[in-house]
Amino acid sequence: MANIIGYGTHLPYYRIKLEEIAKAWNRGGGRGEKTIPAPDEDVVTMGFKAAQGALAHAGVSVANVGAVYVCSLSSGYIENSVAAQIAYALGVEGNVNCTDLGLSARVVTSALQACVDAMAAKRIEYGVVIASDALTAKPGSDAEMTSAAGAAAFVLGAKNGIAEIFGFGSHTTGFIGRYSVEGDSPMLDDERFVMKHGYLEHLSRAAQALERSTKISSKDFDRVVLQAPDPRWPARALAKLGLTPEKLVSIGTQVGYTGCASFFIDLALALEQAKPSEKILAISFGPGGSDALALIVRENKKPIKPLSEQMAPKEYVSYTTYLRYTRQF
Amino acid sequence: MILVIMHKPPQWRIARENARLIGYRCKHCGFVEFPEPRKICKRCRKPSEFAELQMQPYGRVISFVVQHRLPEGFETPLPLAVIDLEGGARVYGQMTECKPDEMKIGMSVEAEYRIFYDDDGLHIYSYKFRPRRSESM
């Protein structure tokens, strides 16, 4: 189909320990930490940084990029193209297809599929698919424990590269699960119900659709990436998919839930770790359903700024600084 | 980043240079102008031609001050630094993700594309600098 020929990620420098948030609200569940965007970071700056790294990793000139896709749930704009702003800053302009996607974290796989299709139709030579989010939630809400910031980007091309995307499978229903209304915190009414009838159901049905189209069993994949609004969910989904825990690749408990970016950051981490000829199963999830993606790794090529190097330099902030940085008052 | 007057016409005129770190090198003396090209070189004072230069996002602090009192919208205390970029330009810019006690003359910094200010909800971006905390690009 198409190849990932470069990737890049960006994690903010600032972190908060979840115990800080739990302490402020006298509540449980304070294990792990999450990223906080600096006061001067947003989806444009983070997406730009990730895409710049991905293009350098791919060694592709911006003049040959024919399409830029940006996936985000948190641009903050009702009208304004984040994709065009990032593309212009990268130096990608003129006869370029520019697309903004949002409203469901699942759009990351829609964007990848659109880019693969554009290449199959020979409309473009190279495409850049970016996911960037700086999620916020009202102080004291459940979503405050997970909402985080980060970005990742992939450069796709027809030439041989780091990994080949060789299959897609989808499961679309009207199931919503988690949703957000403008200016309000994300709502997830019954977590156990959404886990069982939303998350697990959609993930496994999308995986089955992929199995049918690729004729490869989910068990034959070496690494698995699962997108979830709560970083604790993927571990629980493995048994349902018939997979063993060591196959899961996720830094969600160290980073938090970064919306669209969570899927791409974990997929980038899987590519950083994978050896040639390993197969990766990656399943997105958001309101409306799931898409499953099959990849085969061709080469382990160290990215410009590996995630391991971005995890170490960090500064923990207090709960009040966190509120100030995320403009909560 | 440097000498950018905060109203719209100059912002739009130099949008390309500002977003992509493009400078202009004087063909007479080699001085690099950034972000706005000029007719007369600031250093050699000659009416000059300028060649476009893709600047590198790395540099060293030559001098700095720490601002403690600034209008709303700025994180204080805020270090402001004069920086020599690799490849020849000397620029004056805001630091970010940096505490005043981290600042040292000669420290290595990297340019970061950040929100420079908020214009009625529209984010205007430019480059700031932060300490270089890892050796990879």
Structural class of the secondary structure composition of chain A? Answer: alpha/beta
Provide the spatial order of strands within the biggest beta sheet of chain A: 5-4-6-7-1-8-11-10-9
The CATH class of the largest domain in chain A:
Alpha Beta
Count every helix of chain A, treating DSSP H or I runs of 4 or more residues as helices: 10
What is the approximate shape of chain B? Answer: globular
Q: Radius of gyration of chain B, rounded?
A: 15 Å
Largest pleated sheet of chain B: 5 strands, antiparallel
Flag low-confidence runs of chain A: none
Oligomer, anyone? heterodimer
The number of strands of chain A is 12
Classification by helices and strands of chain B: mainly beta
What is the annotated CATH architecture of the largest domain in chain B?
Beta Barrel
Q: The CATH topology of the largest domain in chain A, please?
A: Peroxisomal Thiolase, Chain A, domain 1
- CATH architecture assignment of the largest domain in chain A: 3-Layer(aba) Sandwich
Topology:
The complex is a heterodimer of chains A (329) and B (137).
Chain A: E1 2-10, E2 14-17, H1 18-25, E3 33-36, H2 43-58, E4 65-71, H3 82-90, E5 97-101, H4 107-120, E6 126-134, E7 149-157, E8 163-172, H5 191-214, E9 223-226, H6 233-237, H7 252-255, H8 260-273, E10 279-286, E11 289-297, H9 307-311, E12 315-316, H10 319-325
Parallel strand pairs in A: 2-12, 4-5, 4-6, 9-10
Antiparallel strand pairs in A: 1-7, 1-8, 2-3, 6-7, 8-11, 10-11
Chain B: H1 8-13, H2 15-20, E1 22-26, E2 32-33, E3 50-54, E4 58-67, E5 78-85, E6 90-94, E7 108-119, E8 122-131
Antiparallel strand pairs in B: 1-2, 1-3, 4-5, 4-7, 5-6, 7-8
Explained architecture:
- The complex is a heterodimer of chains A (329) and B (137).
- Chain A is an alpha/beta fold.
- Chain A folds into two domains: 183 residues, Peroxisomal Thiolase, Chain A, domain 1; 135 residues, Thiolase/Chalcone synthase (Peroxisomal Thiolase, Chain A, domain 1), CATH 3.40.47.
- Helix content of chain A is 32%, strand content 24%.
- Chain A has ten helices and twelve strands.
- In chain A, helix 2 crosses helix 3.
- With 137 residues, chain B is mainly beta.
- Chain B folds into two domains: 34 residues; 82 residues, OB fold (Dihydrolipoamide Acetyltransferase, E2P) (Beta Barrel).
- The longest helix of chain B is centred in the first third of the chain and has 6 residues.
- Chain B starts with 7 loop residues before the first helix and ends in a 6-residue tail after the last strand.
- The relative contact order of chain B is 0.19.
- The chains are: A alpha/beta (329), B mainly beta (137).
- At the A-B interface, helix 2 and helix 3 of A face helix 2, strand 7 and strand 8 of B.
